[in-house]
Amino acid sequence: MPSQAELLPGTLDLLILKAVSLGSLHGYGILLRIEQISRGALLVEQGALYPALFRLVRQGFLKASWGTSDNNRRAKYYELTAVGRKHLREEQDGWNRLVAAITSALAAEPGET
Amino acid sequence: MSFLAYFRSLISTLFQRAQADSELDEEFLAHIERHADDLERSGLPRSEAERRARIAFGSPVKAKEGCREQRPAFGLENVWQDVRFGLRMLAINPPFTFIAILTLALGIGANTAIFELLDAIRLRTLPIHNPEQLAEIQIVGGHNGLGLNQDYGVLTRPLFEEVSARQQAFSGLFAWSVNQRYTGKGADMRRFKALWVSGDFFSTLGVLPWRGRLLQRSDEGACPVTHVVVSYGYWQNVLGGRDLREGIKFMADNDLVEVVGVTPPNFSGMIVGDNFDIAFPFCQPPQLLRRDVFDVTVMGRLKPGWTVARASAELAVLSPGIFEATIPPNRGPEFTNPYKNYRLAAIPAETGVSSLREYDRSLYLLLGISGLVLLIACANLANLMLARASSRQTEIAVRLALGASRGRIVRQLLTESALLAAIGSALGFALAQFLGRVLVWQLSTEGNSVHLQIATDWRVLLFATAAAVVTCILFGVAPAFRATRTEPLAAMKSGERTTAGHERLSLQQCMVATQIAVSLVLLVGALLFVRSFRNLMTFDPGMRESEVTVAFLGFWQSDMPAARWLAFRQELVQEVESVPGVLSAASTTNVPLSGGSWEHAIDIGAQHGNSKFTWVSPRYFETMAIPILKGRSLTAEDTASSPHVVVVNETFVRLFLSAVNPIGQTLRTVGEPGYPSTVYEIVGIIPDTRYQSLRQETPPMAFAPAAQNPDPGPWAALMIHSNLPTAVIASTIKQSLKANHPDVLAEFFDFRRAIQDSLLQDRLMAMLSGFFGALAALLTMTGVYGVIAYLVLTRRNEIGIRMALGATRSNIVAIVLRQTLLALSLGLAIGVILALLAAGSAAAILYGLKPNDLLTFTAAIALLILVALAGSFLPARRAARVDPMVALRYE
User: Fold this and answer.
1) DSSP three-state, residue B238
2) How far is C-alpha B519 from the chain's CA centre?
3) I want to staple B488 with a disulfide (CB 3.0 to 4.6 A). Which of B397, B570, B594, B774 is the partner?
4) Which residues of chain A lie closer than 8 angstroms to B69, CB-CB?
5) What is the ipTM of this complex?
6) Is residue B206 part of a domain?
């Protein structure tokens, strides 16, 4: 397993939105999906997931509904709303700009101003 | 989210909380089971898989708490929960709760009461519209007693007229004065409070009539006055609320007046703390108004756009002309030179005027003192909370371990403090209503009742709330944060028997040191005021104080010619002297120690100066038990036609005649209206006696025979020596006078009582600061006791071991007392510095001792050492009684 990184503050919401954008999921599924799409590099504290989900639902980015899962267990499924999809796109653009800026800043060589 | 939606979700979350919680439970459970399924599939036994899944998930309580915090109603929901829990915790420990609330109620009650009084006297504005536009016109620096003076006499009426004619700053300008007058005839005369007003008084203030009409400019005219307005209180209480249309007429002194209107109930004149009965319009006496009688206060309403600063600038420019135009005739250069250089200025007058403001300094000091008592009470409470927090450490540790956030517990503990503060200040506020009235009642004396509205306005409410919040923060915050700083594991392991960390010990000791320091300040203050008051009470004014009744006899209603007044005065003295029970009696133009003063400028040889002048009848010195040191007393042989003579006091001799034999020397008074320049021969010398008040240094004084008084009035003030109580001798004299002279007014008061009433401020300070000092000492003692007892408890094992190893009981007591001594010495050192700084501000109202009085400081320090030792001795003895075996087994 590659070494795991702590999440930057504020990035958990983004990851959750991304994970859910690929299809509706229950809480544990979101956790697995994040692990999967980050190739196991990002560690999500399980207890912290639910307050974040709760918040995203409250903000209107996610929609939650009770359903039945594969092995006939009741579970709460989360899916992206239209607002959430738009929000995800904006956040994603913002994040990319930030990463690009920081990367270029860190790549700066002496004498280059 | 719209407000309505927010509100709906708030309501729904409040009501659906239980449902939401169970949904979360279900969701968490599903999560854990799924994780366990995965782990099981990877080859773990089911039980181990479930265990690992639970560990990976972490605390579900914490997760739930995290979700809850996202809800809009979170704050409200929690506050309510905290309050309920807090009330439960307070109910568990009634003695603690009782003591805490009582301490707070007393502290906040005392503070609020004193603040209410300050508010009523100093801060509240007059009940008129736009009071902030009101300004008073004064002479910069005052007129320093020049000319003749009356209470609230700031300017003269001619000055007021000049200012009115010239000023541009005010849309309306008015003058008023107050004095005492009488209604009725002779012995049935009743005193009332008269308010004299210029024509624009009521219209400028914007006071509307309650009944009839108020006075206006057309009511000003030639004396005597015929129309008056009465206050609501007088109309109700004395006139029985009669309909004005019936025509209410009565005699005010010698003038028949008719009531034309009643002022509204909330208007009690311009003097805060006083009221008026009857308002008279200014009138023009047949002779010109005197220009050297300072008897009116002048106020006005500033025009829009004008400030007091701008008005002052205008008045400064106008001043030379105004004073030049009003120079009194027949006054010498010692009057006119300073007079011409006076400058007028405007000051804000929205809060009216009040002689009670001389209590300002006392009240601010008392507010500081009661604030310090509250501080000590807070330190006590903080210590109690600390001790309680330590005993609740296990509970808090468990809650932390269960996933409660630190902030949540701090908030919970703070809620408990806030509850205490809220209940305590609510009670304190109620207490203040009562204490405030007691204080006002204390300010009233026989001759001068105080009418103050102790009302709860926004300032008082704000003050009480601020006091509650500050106390809550002072005693609640530190213990709350302290309590949550424990490591849950360590706290749970050591269970109830927590070991006293070194730091907590010093925090509590710091608080004890603070208490001792503050207590020292309060005790020094209390001792200073009590001793100052004692100095005044035991001060020998140089004359008889007890067994003296003062009579004021007025005969202005009788139709005798002014030329007979002097002789009649003498007849009255003889008549009073012949009443059984009267040992001796004498008339005087100035009742000593009553605040009155009469002064003449004198020339004596080449020297020029001032001396007090009093005209007394022959037996005055005998009646007042003032010995003649040299020369002779005044006698019946000193008549109007014999050479003018005076008896002077020692200060007079020291100032003017130190080099020569004073007997036989002469002095010449500088003439002024009614008192032509006169040469007096000094025939006797008396020792120094106090004149105006006990506090004032003895001025040079001269006593002349009553028969040589150049300007007697239709009245007489008599000093009566009798060993009967004032009430008894007064009624006897009254009866005898009534039979012979039905038209003579007679009023009496007890001389000693009047002197004591003049010490009101000192008595108040001594009483209240003494009370607060004692309270501070008591609180400190309980504070020391609490802390030391707590320390002893936490060091029980150590003490047990020490005793098992051979320490004697006195060793143990010494160990415990060392804790006290540390805090004590630190507290005393800081306290002495603070007390020295604080006492300086009280210097002005102390009598007969310096604020850094060594004896006072020593006594206060000794008292505090005693208090601290008393507080720590009991726990120390209990520590020494510890059975080592029991203490060790306990561990």
Assistant:
1) coil
2) 21
3) B397
4) 51
5) 0.81
6) yes
Q: Are residues B331 and B419 in the same domain?
A: no
Backbone angles phi, psi at A71, to 5 degrees: -95, 35
Computed over every residue of chain A, the mean pLDDT equals 80
Which residue in A26, A49, A51 is closest to B70 by CB distance?
A51
Q: How far apart are CA B717 and CA B749, in angstroms?
A: 11
The verdict on B207 and B340 lying in the same domain is: yes
Q: Are residues B18 and B162 in the same domain?
A: no
Res B170: pLDDT: 94
The whole-number pLDDT of residue B612 equals 93
Chain A partners of B59 at a C-beta cutoff of 8 Å?
A: 47
What pLDDT is attached to residue B495?
Answer: 45
Q: Which of B801, B830, B779, B771 is nearest to B890 (CA)?
A: B801
Residues 27-56 on A with a CB inside 8 Å of B are: 27-28, 31, 45-51, 54-55
Amino acid at B504: R
Tell whether B339 and B378 lie within a shared domain.
no
Reduce the DSSP state of residue B804 to 3 states and report it: helix
Give the tens place of pLDDT for each residue, B88-118: 877 777 777 887 788 888 888 888 888 888 8
B51 and B95 fall within a common domain = no
Distance CA B188, CA B186 (A): 5
Q: Are residues B878 and B774 in the same domain?
A: yes
Q: Which residues of chain B make contact with A58, given a CB cutoff of 8 A? A: 70-72
Query: Tens digits of per-residue pLDDT, B772-783?
Result: 888 888 888 888
Place B421 in a pLDDT band, splitting at 50, 70 and 90. Answer: confident
Residue B332: domain span: 131-350
Query: Where a domain ends, among B327, B350, B373?
Result: B350
Q: How far off is chain A from B27, nearest CA to CA, in Å? A: 7
Domains within chain A, CATH numbers bracketed: 11-106 (1.10.10.10)
**B261 and B113 in a common domain:** no
Of B31, B66, B70, the CB nearest to A27: B31
Whether B195 and B80 share a structural domain: no
Choice among A58-62, A95-99, B475-479, B841-845 with the minimum mean pLDDT: B475-479
Which amino acid, residue B578? S
Could you say which of B31, B66, B70 has the minimum Cβ distance to residue A28? B31
B737 within domain boundaries = no
Give the end of a domain, one of B722, B740, B773. Answer: B722
Q: Is residue B184 part of a domain?
A: yes
Candidates B200, B202, B195; CA nearest to B161 is B200
Residue A26 distance to chain B (closest CA, Å): 8
SS3 content of chain B, % helix, strand, coil (to 5): 55, 15, 30
B71 interfacial to chain A (CB closer than 8 Å): yes
Span B181-209, average pLDDT: 87
Distance of CA B317 to the CA centre of its chain: 38
How far is residue B221's CA from residue B533's CA, in Å, rounded to a whole number? 49
Number of CB atoms found within 10 A of residue B368's CB: 17
Q: Do B34 and A28 touch (CB under 8 A)?
A: yes
Indicate the pLDDT class of residue B72, thresholds 50, 70 and 90.
low
What is the structure's pLDDT at B728?
Answer: 93
What is the total count of domains within chain B? Answer: 5
Distance in angstroms (rounded) separating the CA atoms of residues B214 and B224: 18
Asked whether residue B736 is domain-assigned, the answer is no
- Give pLDDT tens digits for B324-346: 999 988 787 888 888 999 999 99
The tens digit of pLDDT for each residue in B439-491 reads 888 877 766 677 777 677 778 878 888 887 887 787 777 777 777 766 656 65
Instruction: Confirm if B457 and B124 have CB atoms less than 8 A apart.
Output: yes
What's the pLDDT band for B721 if we cut at 50, 70, 90? very high
Say if CB B576 and CB B582 are below 8 A apart.
Answer: yes
Residue B70: which of A55, A73, A75 has the nearest Cβ?
A55
According to the model, what pLDDT value does residue B73 have?
56
- φ/ψ of residue B589, rounded to 5: -90, -5
